[in-house]
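haha ok so turns out i had the wrong file open the whole time. this is the CORRECT one, sorry everyone. sequence first:
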Amino acid sequence: MVPLSPSSDPLEIAVAAIGSRFASYRPRLGGAFILGERALRYWVLRDIFETILGWPSHAIVVGESYDALLLDSRNAPVIYLETKDYQREAPPQEIAAAERRLAGLQSLELLVFTNVSTWTMQTRAGDRLSWRPGQPSAALFDRLAYRRFSG
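then structure:
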């Protein structure tokens, strides 16, 4: 059973559920080879981007170099999502590599790093916005909603 977040914010509830799920599955499913970044990426895409932020599955492309690209209504990639294992911070060299990939696709507007417990969004211009559970989420997550890119 997933403990309820004390918040009524759907994002806070989803983040708490993903963290709880990850913690309860890890002992049963073993180390990061079975339950790690890829499992987390799926839950973030499904539970947050699809369910809360309104991204349709046809607008989400999961890859390798780019963990996930979110496409606008013209099928141009606009958000690059980089996930890390639960509560694992990205090393500086991985952040630099992701920033280079952001520069490599001209249609990309945003780079998002998350390990679920921390979210960092960077614009093409280099502006950064971070979020952790317990903070107001609208400033970051309103910028990630599909409605901004669908018309």
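The longest strand covers residues 77-83.
again sry for the mixup
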